[in-house]
Design brief:
209 residues, alpha+beta, Archaeosine Trna-guanine Transglycosylase, Chain: A, domain 4, 2 domains, 32% helix, elongated
């Protein structure tokens, strides 16, 4: 178990995912100043009022995008490994920012290439039903589940469970199973929506005989 600097935030980060953040509080400006200088990692810990979250992500600072005159920062960070969070402390020793006791969890990107086309087809079906056209879906040869894990209808519990799945092959299976359950419900809701839109309209229906 290790003690690591921590940044509680109401998001979940999946290893491989890059996130841009605006840093304005003095304690986190201290944290990112040290990250820029020393190249250490930190824990991004999902924080939701009223519940204890025991998983997070080890993050690295990719770059400081911009520094403002008042000390605020725009940064890009990347998740590199999931973490089990044992305890979150309000202060890291001798620092302004929080710290956390963590254990690093396994994470592999080795995938089942045969499963990706089925998974991507299911995602396309979902996006067609939901009329979503502004999301990039990568070619099956390079697609990884983390790229769209925030955009396939997972709820909070599912995202927290997803980040603890160690292998890409298992994550593919988890996401495909989720979509297999979600798609019929989404298609039924879309059919209901279309029927509701027809309410009050004159219908041109052909009698069966």
């Amino acid at each position: 178990m290790d003690m690591i600097s921590a940044f509680p935030l109401s998001i979940i980060a999946f290893p491989g995912e890059s996130i841009k953040l605006h840093i304005f509080e003095s304690r986190y400006r201290q944290l990112f100043g040290e990250l820029e200088e020393r190249g250490n990692t930190f824990a991004l810990i999902p924080y939701y009022e009223g519940r204890e979250v025991t998983v997070g992500a080890e993050m690295e600072l990719v770059k400081v995008i911009e520094k403002y005159d008042d000390g605020k920062l725009d940064v890009e960070v990347k998740a590199i490994k999931p973490l089990q969070v044992h305890k979150l402390h309000s202060r890291y020793p001798n620092r302004l920012y929080p710290g956390a006791e963590v254990t690093r969890l396994p994470w592999s990107d080795d995938m089942d290439r045969m499963a990706n086309p089925d998974l991507i087809l299911a995602i396309h079906r979902l996006y067609k039903v939901m009329n979503i056209s502004n999301v990039t879906i990568h070619d099956p040869s390079v697609f990884r589940t983390y790229q769209l894990a925030h955009k396939v209808g997972f709820n909070l519990e599912q995202e927290l469970e997803f980040v603890t799945i160690a292998t890409e092959e298992e994550r593919q299976s988890y996401m495909l199973n989720h979509l297999s359950n979600l798609l019929p419900m989404a298609e039924e809701m879309e059919t209901l929506r279309k029927r509701a839109e027809l309410n009050g309209h004159i219908k041109n229906l052909k009698p069966p005989f």
